Amino acid sequence: MEKRPSESQPAPVKLNDATLQSLPTAILRPKYDRASLSAGILHIGVGNFHRAHQAWYLHRLMQEGEAFDWAIVGAGIRSYDETQRKKLKAQDYLTTLIQLNPLGSSAEVTGAMIDYVPVDTNNAPLIHRMSQPDIRIVSLTVTEGGYYIDPVTKTFNAKHPDILHDAECPDQPITAFGAMVAALKQRRQTGAGPFTGLCCDNLQGNGEILRQTVVSLAQLTDPDLADWINTNCSFPNSMVDCIVPATGPNELRLASDIGVNDAVPVTHEEFRQWVIEDDFCAQRPAWEKVGVTITKDIHGYEAMKIRLLNGGHQVISNVGELLGVKTIADCMAHEQIAALLNKVAREEIAPHVQSVPGKTPAEYIDLIVHRFSNPRIADTTRRVAFDGSSRHPGFLIPSLRDAIAKGSPFEGLALAEAAWARMCEGTREDGSTIEPNDPNWDELHIAATRSKQDPAVWRGQRQYYGDLADNPEFSDAFDRWLGLIWDKGIGVAIDTYLGN
Mapping DSSP to helix (H, G, I), strand (E, B) and coil, where does residue 129 land? Predict the structure, then answer.
């Protein structure tokens, strides 16, 4: 039975423009006139992270009385994006952000998004909106595995069925990149000019990867257009950082408890960082005024974050799944898992990471340990372990390669790979089922099952390990750890690594 609100607990306010002033006074809200905003950015992939991070920075700039002509138009290419669009449209594209830290919480309603393109199978509305001259930046958060690149060589995968479709039907693309190419073709014809493509996914050299995908796809159908895009558009590299859990019943309840009826609220940690390469072909908002680092040299920031934070996430999430530990904070409260992260990060990853202005690798590890341990952030191990087939090659295996090449310790990294293999077998150590959690789950599950008897089956997956499949040092370490995990359990394997 639905619980009726009492007099002391009024019904949550349905979020929209008309009710902003009726929200509880403790909730921050836009000070600017949203009716005066006009579009400048189109963002593809309007998930929780984008709304807690990039959209928040723009909102903060608008709160300072600037960037009113840089408002965000949301977009997506999957069927579930249309569901998101309808939810956001019903509340005038407003989002409630709830910041959670161990000492308490705070809430803010942000209003930098003003529209969301209807999702259509041929992406005609998206192409049309991107082709308009007011859109000067097209940004993306489409996950690390969404750029049609080989995870080992980082080269463009021209054989993927989606790419083959877009090459054959360039006016009716099914990928975001095909839509970008089609829009840029129109902009070239109309004189609207190029836009900046801003990747906000966790990829080393993410702007270079976005350029490669867009230009390579254009090359398949229109080499002259590809040359024009490569010469005139810019694709700055960027590093984004904020821990943002998925929205579920708990997050909806938190919003309701503070007095907001928001269909898609977002919870997040108190830490944010955004570093962007200073390379924009069609202007940009003055993000540096609200804490964004604009720099000519971004690769050090990228490496530190991707290898230590994202790589650290993979070290503990696969183990957490095997042991039935539900959240990242719970993993950090687990003595063994926390010790595993600490040793691998400090001894095997940090030696291959350079300091950046104001932060050494050791200081950054201290920071992520603090952030991962926040008990109020219900970031599930399942969410963090998702898409290991993209995240291990992107986040962990580069450190493994560096360590082997330099003769540095790598046993913990090999153990992490063995834990991934064991997890993909699909059962926890208590016998419960791990549901499919990777776009390539079927092939991973088959390899993981066979590797119980023959570890070479797993490490022989060259699409993830490349020539490491032939490296005797890695092979020996991986086989030993996987055998021990199957024989004695992940806990014994971790204790052995830790020297306990």
Answer: helix
- Look at residue 151 in the predicted model and tell me its pLDDT: 84
Give helix then strand counts, H and E, for the chain.
23, 13
DSSP-assigned beta bridge partners for residue 132? none
Read off the amino acid at residue 423: M
Please answer whether residues 85 and 76 qualify as being in contact, where contact means their C-beta atoms are separated by less than 8 angstroms: yes
Nearest CA among 427, 429, 396, 388 for reference residue 414? 396
Q: How confident is the model at residue 1 (pLDDT cuts 50, 70, 90)?
A: very low
The neighbour count for residue 58, using CB atoms within 10 Å, is 25
d(CA 405, CA 298): 24
CA 322 – CA 419 distance, rounded (Å):
8
pLDDT digits (tens, 9 = 90+) for 133-153: 999 999 999 989 999 999 888
Give CA angle at 245 (197, 213), nearest 5°. 25
Let me know the angle formed at the C-alpha of 208 by 302 and 117, rounded to the nearest 5 degrees.
100
- What is the number of other CB atoms lying within 10 angstroms of the CB of residue 339? 15
Give the closest residue to 51 by CA, choosing from 246, 335, 326: 246
Tell me the chain's radius of gyration from C-alpha atoms.
23
pLDDT per residue as tens digits for the range 276-309:
999 999 999 999 999 999 999 999 999 999 999 9
Check residue 3 and give its pLDDT. 42
User: Could you give all domains of the chain from N- to C-terminal order, each with its CATH number?
Assistant: 13-295 (3.40.50.720), 299-498 (1.10.1040.10)
Interatomic CA distance for residues 474 and 409, integer angstroms: 11
Q: Give the pairing type, strands 238-241 and 273-277.
A: antiparallel
14 φ/ψ sector (left φ>0, alpha ψ -120 to 50, else beta): beta
What gap in Å lies between CA 405 and CA 472, rounded to an integer?
Answer: 12
Whole-Å CA distances, 496 to 145, 340, 417, 423: 33, 11, 16, 19
pTM value is 0.93
Q: Are the CB atoms for 441 and 450 separated by under 8 Å?
A: no
